[in-house]
């Protein structure tokens, strides 16, 4: 039998050079969010399927979740998102935790979908949440954090755009302004959420299918399209300008721009797919013409913790996927050259391995990551291995070197060789 | 509906204080293995079930694996171990990779078993492997790495013992010395593997069940028990002393002891559960009477990469589980006190939040992780929150402080307060 070598469909193997890129990305993410006082948590990748039935939205649970029945008869899911899990964890210790609570995680998530660019079955997602802040300073900070992340990858504000909306404004538009029923409103939110991925005529077709003949006669389609076309808050119909969510949005955008976030705009089509959002929502878009898509999104979801039978906790948070972020970084040429963390390769013949092991230990004690070639091959082959591994320094150990305590240190980039004592090598590699 | 808040059975939620302990442990593991030149890789948690059918051993696949059929009709498993995966990855790039290859990973693994102390359904496991070294210097280095890990957690060599054996010695004992059939030998290996967990009379009962009446008459039980009782290589029957695996083991133990690993012993009952081991095998045991169990194990498994239809690659490696390691560290009091990584908490009233945000940014730019309390609560409540979070420094911002550019920095441990300019606070917290 010959086993196949490909990873599971829609998922990725991370060879060391791929893992280095992931480590770099996750390292930047961790550094930024920790600088704002967020603390990392984690949880099992398996959860009860019930956790997602309540609020994730029908499509995700029924069509996209990896779920199965375990040997004990429990319906379980491989988590498709982290928000229900973190809400569960906060609910479990509702009384003991100190609010405002700032938590983050970079969980591995799975969705059963057709693999495509930037959308895989498996991905990682930075989740950043703040619990216990009812005012919009929570969302304000989250958008600062999101912006800081892109800035820390050395992106300019021309490379991405932060789009912001308010679920309560949407509700106000649908129920008060357009006077739609609750069911029509829900269907429209789902439709608007897909708008940017649809042909305009298709959108109108499906919009018309939701409205009654009477509503169409009253030009509700046109009224809605006018709203959705607004390029800023002032572009909304006058009747909407003074409703509380419009005022809240307006103040937040002003504050963000005042802090230098010149790439923030109002976009009434931003919905976020999940059913649990209850206030301000936002997404960050790549402005590159080849990748003009949402890279991250979040907002306020005050209702989730309360679903676990405890008093509700006001909450806002966002998620940022690793695959879309990696696309962004590559497309804008922001990925630095990442060196092998092994600084020194020790080439040695089989007879001198005992001496080589002692020398390697000495380097490690000095904080130098070094690998010793214990294959027993010819020195030339060992040098080729170091080159292939992109380890830049090679120390050659032979019987003469040991006797004289002078070793050849070869720089693989320049091919230059110097003869040094071990102390000198340590000095050279640690400075 | 009220959702339950407990995590999935046999798995753990990691609250920030738990995650800090994990980060510390994984940080030490990464530092040590990287110092030997090992590079990190990763792979999807889902694999084709076939990957485990070939070599993992029957019990693991049929009774303990989380497996299911995906929406595309594929039989998949949540990986119970990493060795088949890493073998698959090496096979996929067999020709391109530079040997000796030193790879490690800390994957999340799942097994369906009855949860008990140190054995959970979900755990993490450090996997360290060296590919492309046919001589025993690979095993020698792996045992050095294992020892270095425990030393780096500040364990003494009295706290753990390294037990070593050779699968070829076992084969030689079973087929040449005792002249058992292949089937009897396989059954015995499985039995010996469980020996330390069984009552002695039970072991003899099951041993007798494997042997034929004629073999029992020839005292094979006694002969085997004599072998298994050997406390060092010299304690083996004379006929075994000069077989090649006994000589190899003897040389390796001498070399390890010469390098200071005084806690290495020969133990002929060490088998390792998996079917793929083909040479030297070893395990590290906790010597604490309350936790006298195996914490990690590994050995040579030359046959796995070749199962993917490429030329075989000589391989040795080990795995170390996080739950058993955590037990060891706690039982021996080796866990250091881990501080909150948030160094500074900013207490501020709602009216001064704009100023607070600017001040927080200044601290972050100086590399100080700081959280600002945006709840709008009374200052006293904010101080209590800082205390509960174990953040030791609190900066209090009020209108007078802003006007005078002198802020109160309060040390929560000592309750001492000092009035400082922002520059002075930065200096104090960064030195």
Protein model, in words:
The structure is a homodimer of 431-residue chains. The first copy, chain A, is an alpha+beta fold. Helix content of chain A is 40%, strand content 19%. The first copy, chain A, has helices at 16-35, 50-53, 58-64, 83-92, 137-152, 167-177, 182-193, 200-210, 213-217, 220-228, 238-241, 244-258, 322-331, 353-365, 379-388, 399-404, 422-430, and strands at 39-40, 46-48, 66-69, 75-78, 101-105, 108-110, 122-131, 160-166, 264-266, 280-286, 294-300, 315-321, 344-348, 370-372, 393-397, 407-411, 417-420. In chain A, strands 1, 5, 6, 7, 8, 9, 10, 11 and 12 form a 9-stranded mixed beta sheet that branches. In chain A, a hairpin with a 5-residue loop joins strand 16 (407-411) and strand 17. The two termini of chain A are 53 Å apart. Chains A and B meet through helix 1, strand 1, strand 2, helix 4 and helix 5 of A and helix 1, strand 1, strand 2, helix 4 and helix 5 of B.
């Amino acid at each position: 039998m010959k086993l196949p070598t490909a990873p599971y469909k829609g998922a990725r193997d991370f060879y060391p050079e791929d893992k280095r890129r992931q480590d770099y990305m996750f390292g930047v993410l961790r550094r930024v969010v920790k600088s704002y006082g967020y603390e990392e948590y984690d949880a099992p990748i398996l959860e009860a399927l019930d956790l997602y039935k309540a609020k994730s939205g029908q499509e995700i649970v029924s069509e996209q979740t990896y779920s199965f029945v375990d040997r004990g008869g429990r319906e379980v899911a491989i988590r498709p998102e982290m928000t229900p899990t973190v809400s569960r964890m906060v609910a479990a210790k509702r009384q003991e935790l100190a609010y405002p609570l700032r938590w983050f995680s970079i969980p591995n998530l799975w969705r059963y979908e057709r693999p495509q660019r930037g959308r895989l079955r498996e991905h990682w997602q930075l989740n950043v949440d703040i619990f216990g802040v009812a005012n919009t300073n929570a969302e304000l900070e989250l958008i600062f954090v999101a912006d800081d992340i892109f800035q820390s990858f050395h992106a300019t504000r021309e490379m991405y755009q932060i789009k912001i909306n308010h679920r309560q404004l949407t509700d106000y538009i649908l129920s008060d302004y357009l006077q739609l029923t609750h069911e029509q409103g829900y269907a429209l939110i789902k439709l608007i959420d897909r708008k940017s991925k649809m042909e305009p005529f298709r959108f109108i077709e499906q919009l018309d299918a939701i409205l009654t003949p009477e509503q169409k006669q009253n030009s509700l389609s046109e009224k809605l399209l006018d709203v959705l076309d607004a390029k800023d808050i002032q572009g909304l119909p006058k009747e909407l300008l003074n409703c509380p969510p419009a005022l809240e949005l307006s103040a937040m955008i002003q504050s963000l721009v005042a802090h230098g976030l010149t790439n923030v705009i109002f976009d009434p089509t931003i919905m976020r797919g999940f059913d649990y959002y209850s206030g301000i929502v936002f997404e960050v878009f790549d402005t590159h013409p080849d990748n003009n898509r949402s890279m991250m999104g979040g907002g306020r979801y005050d209702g989730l913790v309360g679903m676990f039978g405890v008093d509700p906790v006001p909450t806002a948070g966002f998620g940022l996927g690793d695959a879309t972020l990696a696309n962004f970084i590559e497309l804008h040429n922001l990925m630095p050259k990442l060196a092998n963390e092994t600084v020194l390769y020790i080439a040695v013949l089989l007879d001198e391995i005992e001496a080589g092991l002692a020398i390697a230990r000495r380097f490690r004690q000095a904080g130098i990551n070094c690998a010793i070639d214990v294959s027993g091959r010819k020195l030339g082959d060992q040098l080729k291995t170091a080159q292939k591994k992109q380890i830049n320094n090679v120390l050659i150990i032979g019987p003469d070197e040991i006797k004289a305590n002078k070793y050849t240190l070869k720089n693989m980039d320049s091919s230059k060789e110097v003869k040094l004592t071990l102390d000198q090598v340590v000095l050279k590699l640690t400075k």
